Amino acid sequence: MDDGLFLILGLAYGLLPFLGLVSFLRQRKQAERIDGLERQIAGLRAEVVGLRGAAPPQSAVGPATGPAAEIPLATPIEPPVRPEAEAESPEPPPEPPPESPEPATPPPFEPAPMPAAARLSLPSLESLLTGRWLVWIGGVALALGGAFLVQVSIESGLITPPVRILFGLALSVALVAGAEWLRRRPPARGVGPLGPDHLTPSAAGAGVAVAYAAIYAAYGLYGLIAQLSAFVGMALVSLVAVGLGLLHGPAVAALGIAGALAVPLVVGGESEDGAALFAYLASVVAVGGFAARWRGWAWALLMAHGGGILWVLVWIVSSIGGGEPWTAMLFVPAAGALAAGLRRRPEEGGAEEGGTLDRIGAVHAGLTLLGTLALLFATGDAGFAMALGVAAAALLMVDERAGTRLTGGTAAALLVLLAAVASVHENGGPRLFPLVLAPAFAAATFALAHGSVRAGWFALLGAVGPALLVALGYALWTDGKPDAGWALVAVAVAALHVALAAAAARWRDDERVGERWSALLAAHATAALAGVALGAAFILRDAWLSVALAATVAGAAWVHRSVPVAGLRHAALVLAGIVIVRLATNPDVFGYPLGGPLPGVSWIWTGYGLSALAFVAARRGFGEAASLTLRTVLEGGALTFLILLVSFQFRLSVGGDLTHPAYGLLEQSLNSAWWLGVALFLYARAGHSENLTVRWGWRVLGLMGAVQVLVGHLILDNPLVTNDPVGEWPVANLLLLAYAVPAVLAGGFAWVAAWRGHRRLGLAAGGGALLTAWVWLSLSVRQAFHGTHLEAGAVTDGEMYSYSVAWLAFGGALLAVGLWRGSQLFRYASLILILASVAKVFLVDLSALAGLWRAVSFIGLGAALLGIGLVYQRFVLVRPSAAGPALEPDP
Questions:
Q1: Mind listing the pLDDT tens digit for each residue in 132-165?
Q2: Smallest Cα–Cα separation from 519: which of 588, 465, 568?
Q3: Rounded CA separation 402/337 (Å)
Q4: For 393, 632, 755, 854, which has the most beta carbons within 10 A of its beta carbon?
Q5: What is the DSSP string of 576-591?
């Protein structure tokens, strides 16, 4: 297709707005004349009503100074005085107060009949049919009739094809001329509640449709005209249609824009680089922009811009020309610039005026983003990607800064730059590109924020954007391997953020713009912190990266003492969360090299110990300014790191490394004692504290320890089940750590719970203490007879008797403590053990023991029971009473 033809059409489209402006001014002058005639008619109508004697006095109804539709038809009227009342009261009424004189009573009158146009409040079905629906149906019928006329002329062969086409064009011109004639001489000015007249745009739209059909038939069906002529004809029809739309309404303009976008598809053509096509599409966008500018038709510009971007996608998919789409690259930012320069921008307003978002501008930004991303992913030239990315990003950012509402253009620009970096790397471009983009984006957003009411938005993107660009460049060019060069780049970007934050700090005390500069200060101070953390991530690995991030959190806290901005707290919260995830939930920590910076010291002391200290320092640095969430995360993270530090050290001490699969009773016992001990400490300090770390820390750790003791120690890893060695020493062995220590800690929980009145917790902890203590005592008896392996050897009579003695002795000790402390719970615990001993003697010893051992067992049990009964009668059941003598037993 001839490129010069497209340029001529583009020039024609450029002249269209000026022709439309002339027509618009003439139409406005005619409308003013019509309004003047209406006012004169309204004045004459008021005079006629006054001559009939039906007009109210001047005090009740003012003179008619406006159109007839503005005459107050429902003005309240004073009721007339009856003649009988005048006869009954000849005396004049008393004079009213001077401040509110009574107006004279108007004579009775009959109100003038209301005009028919004023009586219409809602459109009836008849008016809707005749004034709106049937009109548009008629227009569609005319368009279809023109198409059918072409079809009939083809099938019948009555007239030659050139004559048929001429008839179609003549019908088109007649319809357009008739529409213009009706516009200038409307059949009726008042259409009631139906609004504008739909007759003229319907006729004009039908004429445009018939013209399209005639030209297409001449080219596609009969071959009477060449492809170039068909393109020119359809483009001119579209041009005329848009011009008619400025006079006849948006429907005709929409038809013209749609037709203009469809012309290249209908007519087709060949072009190696698409220069003619995209020049033509740019002119269509310009025409839509002028229509939106003059008439306020935002949809016209959206329609033209969206159609142009759709053509870019079609061009990419069809791969026309096979080369780089340089013309499409020029078209996308050019179309975005036309949309930015020609559209009407809304003013800043509240929710009732549309809020702070420019929805139309956001759609245009999205269209530019879509076209740019499509071209970036389709290109194979790094230079093309760099040029397009920078141009589109600059356009989007400037467009958003030019308005008073958000369009999302800066965020779209950041996405464009990220895509451009990926495209440059994919096509073998230089790694310098993201290194230049990151500081340039930071400086650009800082400049955009200066003096803007949306400084916080630009500051946020200026803080996030450079970090994302540097991180993406590092990931693409290094494959995630440590690189000192990229670490230096991240630190350099952080230094730039420090400089920008310092510049913002000089203005934050200004009452006029202090709030905006405070947002910039917070954003760039946070970005500097993130840049340091990013540099650490580029060069450090494993636990050292977590330590560096934790140290960054502490640094943020102490910077916050001098620059108390909320952004530092938010950044510290995010970084603290990353550290916790890396050290507490990351399974890769088991594969970290054990070596640390100090000989013989594992990395867990530096990784978890230094991180915990950094979190504690951060908590102190933020002080009362820390939010509840930040305070809880820092305190909870420090506690978590401390727990993991000791638990992992236990694992190293028992198994030699962190990856060994076994988790035996010794390691379980150490962890249970550690968890329950810390839980008891926190519970003792909790009281009525509002500290979430303390309140929930003892619950979580206590539950973990209790579950491990009940499931692991008592069931799964019980030495009686596993036959694991417990040690040769009688008392100082594994059983002491596995059962006696948890029993003591559970007893501590029960004591603190009783002191605080937590009855349920006290009962549960006391029951757990009694159970684990009884198991420890029983297993200790077995260890005394069998040695380190509890399953070795048969059970002797002496062992069976020793169980009964041990249980009774334990029960007696609990009873003594219960009597000494006056505790009913201890007495109940002693009774449980005594009953267990009785059950053992009668159910087990009776059949298992023989001879002297059986006798001694029963004698000892009987003596113990009698002694216990005596103690109960002496100290529990019967107590001296001041009210009278003690009760005697029944005979």
A1: 554 555 555 555 555 555 555 556 665 677 776 7
A2: 568
A3: 12
A4: 393
A5: HHHHHHHHHS-GGGGG
